[in-house]
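Why run this: before we spend reagent on co-expression, it is cheaper to look at a predicted model of the complex and decide which construct boundaries make sense. The entries below are exactly what would go into the expression plan.
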Amino acid sequence: MPLESYKGKALDVLSQIGAEIGDIIEIEKEKVRVKGILMPSYSKDDDIVVVKMDNGYNVGVSVENASVKLVEKRGLGKPLTGKGDNRKGEVKIISTGGTIVSKVEYETGAVRPALTTEEIVQFLPEINEIAKVSSEILFSILSENMTPENWVKIAESVKKAFDEGSLGVIVAHGTDTMAYTASALAFSFKGLQGPVVLVGSQRSSDRPSSDSPINLLSSVILAKSAPFGEVVVNMHGESSDTYTLAHRGVKVRKMHTSRRDAFQSINDRPLAKVFWREREVKLLRSDFFPKREESVLDSKFDNRVFLLKYYPGMDPSIVEYLVEEKDVRGIIIEGTGLGHTSTQFLEEFRKASREGAFLGMTSQCLFGRVNMNVYTTGRLLQQAGVVPLEDMLPEVALVKLMWVLAHEDDVDKVRSLMLTNMAGEINYRHSVDFYPRWNYE
Amino acid sequence: MPLESYKGKALDVLSQIGAEIGDIIEIEKEKVRVKGILMPSYSKDDDIVVVKMDNGYNVGVSVENASVKLVEKRGLGKPLTGKGDNRKGEVKIISTGGTIVSKVEYETGAVRPALTTEEIVQFLPEINEIAKVSSEILFSILSENMTPENWVKIAESVKKAFDEGSLGVIVAHGTDTMAYTASALAFSFKGLQGPVVLVGSQRSSDRPSSDSPINLLSSVILAKSAPFGEVVVNMHGESSDTYTLAHRGVKVRKMHTSRRDAFQSINDRPLAKVFWREREVKLLRSDFFPKREESVLDSKFDNRVFLLKYYPGMDPSIVEYLVEEKDVRGIIIEGTGLGHTSTQFLEEFRKASREGAFLGMTSQCLFGRVNMNVYTTGRLLQQAGVVPLEDMLPEVALVKLMWVLAHEDDVDKVRSLMLTNMAGEINYRHSVDFYPRWNYE
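The model came back. C-alpha cells follow.
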C-alpha cells in the first residue's frame, strides 16, 4: 500500500526506510520509543507519522529529531482482491453513517464516512489477517435521522450480502439510534445465515481515545466466527480496552451519552465477549439463535404508533388526540414502577381500546418486569385494555409494535404477536447479575 | 403495650410469660430457636407469633409445641407521649400512601396505611430508642395517582412540621413516583431546617422480605441526625440488608420495577449511607446543603408542560399540537445520545420557540451529559431554540420546568432559571464511579 496520505517530511522519512501502510515501524525520540502499525495519516501537519500501538490506540508522532525504523514488512495494507482469493466476501461491511471509520478532512473540518473497502483496510490493516472484507456505502445518515424506511433498506442490504455468500454482515451505524435499528433488523428476519453485527463509535476516529478500531476489529472477528444467526450490537464492554460485548439487538440500550461502554444489555446477558487482541469470541450463553440455511426477510413497519412516557400531572387527553386525530394504531406506554399510570387515564384507554388501538405497558424503570396484577391500578388498567409487555424495553416494544401493525389488522392477533417472543425480546428468567452494581465508598 | 393484635393460642402463651409488644422473646421449636422483638400480629391464624429478628426480617412462628420465653422486658412498645418528654416531635412522619408501613387486613385482603404514631411504634418498637416520632396521615394516595397539587400539600405539611420544631421530616410515599415528588419538594424549598427524607417500600410489610422496617428505621436515624437541609430519597442501597442510601432528591431514579435497591443516584454520588444496625449515618460527601435557620417554602407548579421522548419515525406535528392546541408552555425533550432528534423537528421547534414555548433537551441515555456542540444536529437544534440541560434527568427537568413556569413568564428568564443550579440537579463534575458496573462471567 502506497504512502499516499503522507506528504512532506513524514513522506520523506517513511519512503527512505521503505515503509508502507500496515507495516510495523518503530519511532525513537527523546528516549521515548513507539512501536506499532503504520497508519494512514490524518494530520494536517506534514511531519506527523501515525502509529497504532498494541493497546489499540493511534498515536501521532513528529519525525523531527526522531529515528524511524522499519521493523516488519507485512504487505497487509491493501485489500485482498486478487483472483483466486478464496476468502472473497467473507464479511460484508454496510455503512450507513455515523462516526465509525469516518475520515476527518482536516482542511474542511468535515467528517465524512470512509468505508470503501480500500479505506477500511487502510484504516485497520489487521483486518486482512482475520477475514476478507468487502463493503458498501448504503447511505450516509446521522443516526438521529434514521427512519423506519431506512431500517427496511438496511435489512434488504443485509439479506443481499448473505445471498451473495457472506459469512457475517457488519452494519456501521451512528450510536444515537443504533439500538432501535438493531431491534428493527431482529424483527425483520425470521432466521439468519450468520451474525449481523451493528457497530459504531462513541469517539470519532481522529481522537486518540477513539473506540473505532477496536470496535470494528472485534466486529470483523465476530461476524466471521460467531456461531449464531442473530442481530447483535458490538461495542466496548468496559471503560478499558480489554473486550467488546456482543449484546442481543433486542435487549440493548445506549445508557450513557459519551462513554465508550455506553451500550449495555438490560434484563439479559450479552451473547458474547470478544477479545480483540486474542481474536477470540467467548460465548456467555448457549441459547442463541443458530445460523439457518436461509435468511428469511420480512421487513415492514407501520409508524402510526406512539411512545407515551407517563409522568405526574400528564393530561390524559393526549390519548384521544393520538387515536382520533393522528390515527395512531398503537401506543406503548412507559409507565411507572410495575406498569402504572394515573387512574385518570382509564377512561381514555377504554375509549382507545374500543376503537381498536393496541395499548402496551412497559416500565420507565427499564430494569425488571412489569406486573399489573399486584396493585389495583394495574388490574384496572388491564381491564381498560392495557397489555403488560413483560420485561420488554419501551423502545424495543415500540419497534416491535411497528412491525406487528404492518403485518396484522386484527387487534387480538396484534396482542398475541406482541406477547410472542420473536427474537429474544422477552426474557422470562432474570438473573440477579443483570442489574448492575453501583459502588460508593 | 398490650397484646391486642393477638388472639387465641398465641395470646394465651404470650400473656402467660408476661410479654408485651416490643419485648425480646425466644421461641424454641423442633431444634430451631428464634430470638427477636415481639411484633404485632398480622396473621389470621391465632397460633402465630411474629418476631423481628436481628437481620431486620419478621418471621411468623406457630406456638404449637413450642417453648416461648421472655428474654428482656423493654417497655418500648408505646409512643412516648408523656408530659415532660423533651424528645417530643423530634421526627415527624407524614404519610401520603404507598405500601410502607401499611397494614394488611387479612380478612379483606385490603392494604391500608397504618401510620398513626401508635401503629408506627407498634410496627417498629426500636424507633423509640432513636427518636420521638409523631405522625400525620396527610392522604392515602397510590403514588401513580400523585399530582402536582399533591406535591404542594406535602410541601406545606413539611413546612408546618419544621415550624413546629421537628428536627427532620419523613415523607412515606409510594415508590412509583417518589423521585418526581422528591424533585418537587427540592424545588419547593429555598433552604430547609433539616433533612426531608422520602421513604417507601418495594415489598409490602406483610412479606418476609419487606424492606419496610429497615427503610423506615434508617429514615428515622437520618431525619434525626443527618447534618443536611436537603430532600433525599432513602431506600435499600444493595440487595442485602446492610445499609440504605440517602440519594439527593433531584438526582435519583427508580431503576428497577421490583428490587429493593431499585432507587439509585444517576450522575451523582448519594449523600450518605445509613447503617441501621449500627444506627450510624456515614456521609459520602461534604458538599450538601446545610441546615438553615428557616425553611422557606415557595411551592407552585404549572403543569402545562410535556415530556417528549424521541424515537425514529416520530411525527413532528406533535409539537404543534402541544403548543397550539394544548397551550403547553414548555417541552422537555428526551433526545438520543448527546441530545438529538431528527432534523425533521427543526421547523416545528422553531415555530414553538417563536411562540414563546421553552424547549429543553435531556438524554434518554440517562447517564452522562447532553452536549449539543459536537454534531451538526445539536447545533441546528440549538439554533431552533432548544436549550441543552446539562446532566439533568428528564423527569427532574420536567418537574423543574413546572416550577419555573409557575414563577416566570418571560422566556429568557425561564431559560436562565432552567440553567440555574437550584437544588443540585445539575452536576458539573462527573466521576467514573457514577456509572454502575455490569459484570458478566
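DSSP finds eleven helices and 21 strands in chain A. Chain A touches chain B through 81 residues (CB under 8 Å). Bring this page to Monday's planning discussion.
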